[in-house]
Amino acid sequence: MEKLSSVGQLEWLRNRILARMDERKIVVQVCMTGCRAYGSAEVKAALEAEVERQDLSDQVEIRATGCHGFCAKAPVIAIEPMGIQYQEVGPDDAAEILDRTVKQRGLIDRLAYRDPQTGNPIFYRTQIPFYKKQERRILANCVRIDPTRIEDYIAAGGYRAIVKALTRMTPEAVIQEVVDAR
User: Could you point out which of 135, 143, 161, 172 has its C-alpha 20 to 30 Å from the C-alpha of 50?
Assistant: First the structure.
């Protein structure tokens, strides 16, 4: 990563990072925070090995991410852009996830969240009751970015607030915005 000396260079870098990203790739996001205690590192390694074995490197990215927020169901993975979330995933599930869900666009019932009242599987994060009333603000990108790759943060719009504060706000306006946010 090169040293930046201006706000314009940050935007140039962000555009360069975004241009290199393949929007057609499916991204399997593996929680590597609390889920790590339940074996997510092994799940990630198994998914990566399976991507290689099935020759899917040009179509699928396996990405370590921050917390998905549902630690009680660890390890948790999300598959984007489909919006699918699987829970209690093990390394032995890697081949089936890539074959059935990624390649065939099918769903795996046993890895889905179960509605506590009906017992029906819920596959999509936006439909899981645990998430329905949540609005992630501070950690909105946590599920999408690899916390060890600053490029992911920049691509997701990281540093926009500091750019705004430095270029378009007075010191008083910055203080007022902090006060108003409380």
Answer: 143
Does 177 reside within a domain? yes
* Confidence (pTM): 0.81
Give the tens place of pLDDT for each residue, 29-48.
Answer: 999 988 999 999 999 999 99
| Token pair recorded at residue 168 | 């378009």
SS (H, E, C) the chain: CCCCCCHHHHHHHHHHHHHHCCCCCEEEEEECCHHHHHCHHHHHHHHHHHHHHCCCCCCEEEEEECCCCCHHHCCCEEEECCCEEECCCCHHHHHHHHHHHHHCCCCCHHHCEECCCCCCEECEHHHCHHHHCCCCCCCCCCCCCCCCCHHHHHHCCCCHHHHHHHHHCCHHHHHHHHHHHC
| Inside any domain, residue 2 | no
Q: Within a domain: residue 93?
A: yes
The total of structural domains in the chain comes to: 1
Binned at pLDDT 50, 70 and 90, residue 181 comes out as confident
Nearest-5° angle of CA 166, CA 168, CA 173? Answer: 85
